[in-house]
């Protein structure tokens, strides 16, 4: 600050006058970051001071900054962490917390009965017969699935969609079986188209329609394979009355009178 004031005085003696505002800006820009609050207040209040007046203001600001710095240093040195009583006792005594003794593993009792072979003296997990059957595949683990359901696994929004999906799955199974029999060459009539009966006119119309309809966009693509089977002549879908549909008593809870008619 003093050096800049001296340079400005020398330039004025040489006839080069520096504007007061330019000198003030140069001084404010050269200040360290600790004076940022002072610079902000000076600019907000739009003070038009001379360099000597600015020098006096900076001296008073420097004193305030030093006081704030001393307060911060005192707060940092007086801060400490509290330690628990248990930790202090452990450090003084140097003893570690006692761990409970580990119980030794015991084997099966002589009268213990195996749930698999019904013999005594061992458990099921140690049974040689059970382990051998488990390895050979005769025994399934609990998490393994050894069954399959033939029910429809998709939730349909309408009866037409449900019948359409059922007809598609039935046609896929029938076409696979037909192609297998044709390869064997045992049944000559296997080359004829398979007839699938359906009691829903909407499902029949959608299966016989080769074009994609916007109402069927939500149905998965794999269920539209029935259209290809019908177009290739492998499957033929026909209408059957609900009272004459043989699949109803096998899949639905019908009244007794209607069930007896079938």
Tell me what the structure shows.
The protein is mainly α and 262 residues long. The protein has three domains: 72 residues, no CATH class; 31 residues, no CATH class; 103 residues, no CATH class. The protein is built from eleven helices and two strands; from the N terminus they run H-H-H-H-H-H-H-E-H-H-E-H-H. A two-stranded parallel sheet has the order 1-2. This is CCHC-type domain-containing protein. Keywords: Metal-binding, Zinc, Zinc-finger. It holds the Pfam family zf-CCHC.
List the helices and strands and how they pair.
Blueprint: H1 2-13, H2 20-29, H3 36-45, H4 51-78, H5 85-93, H6 128-136, H7 159-184, E1 194-198, H8 201-208, H9 225-232, E2 235-239, H10 248-251, H11 256-261
Parallel strand pairs: 1-2
Helix pairs in contact: 7-8
Average pLDDT for all residues: 74
In whole angstroms, the N-to-C terminal distance is: 112 Å
Question: Uncertain regions: pLDDT < 50 for 5+ in a row?
Answer: 143-149
Number of domains: 3
- Number of contiguous helices: 11
Shape call: elongated
Listing every helix as H and every strand as E from the N terminus to the C terminus, the arrangement reads HHHHHHHEHHEHH
Helical coverage, percent range: 40-55%
Structural class: mainly alpha
Name its key features:
single chain; 262 residues; mainly alpha; 3 domains; two-stranded parallel sheet; 50% helix; elongated
